[in-house]
Amino acid sequence: MVNKIVQSHPELGKRQFELIDDVIEYRITNQFGDEELAVVLSVLSPEPVIDGKMMYFVSEVNREALIKLFVGLPDTDVFENFVSTLQQRIREEDIGQLDAKNRDSVITCEQVETTIRMLETYIDPTHIADLLKSLRLLSQEPDNQQYLSGVVNAFNNLGMQQGPVLTYAPFFNTLLSSTDLNELG
């Protein structure tokens, strides 16, 4: 299990990544200066994007590349071990996924229909078609746990549309994993 790597690139400088608790800290040093940042693991997608000689771990919300690694540096074994460890830690910290079991209160038809109207008003329906379809099923049977799970799965598959959905449809906040604020301090 590799929790820290240092990557050196002849033209792009030096990058150091370290997993500490629930964050990844990184430092970049190049001809333009130094940059330091800490990224909370729970905001990252565990599946990286590879683009040529770069590997990116992106935000689950807006798909922005937050962690940028040189593929194969410092060597293939250390790199792959670090990436594997990082993916495992991201999955362990994944508090951002919705889960149907997190909903304690009763769901009403009116809530679901209001959610549908809000989404159709503020978001292009073609971008969230599967979610709207799942919500319509749930509006017919609001107490159907299978339909609620379908809504959750459709949301979790939205990619960068998750942010706008959370903004315009407060209904989804009740499905977020509950986290005790004392655990975050």
Structure in words:
This protein is α+β, with helices and mostly antiparallel strands. It is built from six helices and seven strands; from the N terminus they run E-E-E-E-E-E-E-H-H-H-H-H-H. A hairpin with a 2-residue loop joins strand 5 (49-51) and strand 6. It has helices at residues 76-92, 109-122, 129-140, 145-156, 162-168, 181-184, and strands spanning 4-9, 13-20, 23-30, 33-40, 49-51, 54-58, 65-70. It starts with a strand and ends with a helix. A four-stranded antiparallel β-sheet has the order 1-2-3-4, covered by helices on one side. A three-stranded antiparallel β-sheet has the order 5-6-7, with no helix packed on it.
Number of helices: 6
- The ordered H/E elements are EEEEEEEHHHHHH
Q: Main beta sheet, described?
A: 4 strands, antiparallel
Inertia-based shape: elongated
Main structural class = alpha+beta
Q: Name the poorly predicted regions.
A: 177-185
- Summed over residues and divided by their number, the pLDDT gives a mean of 85
Terminal residue distance = 26 Å
Q: Strand arrangement, largest sheet?
A: 1-2-3-4
> C-alpha Rg, in Å?
20 Å
Fraction of residues in helix: 25-40%
Strand content: 15-25%
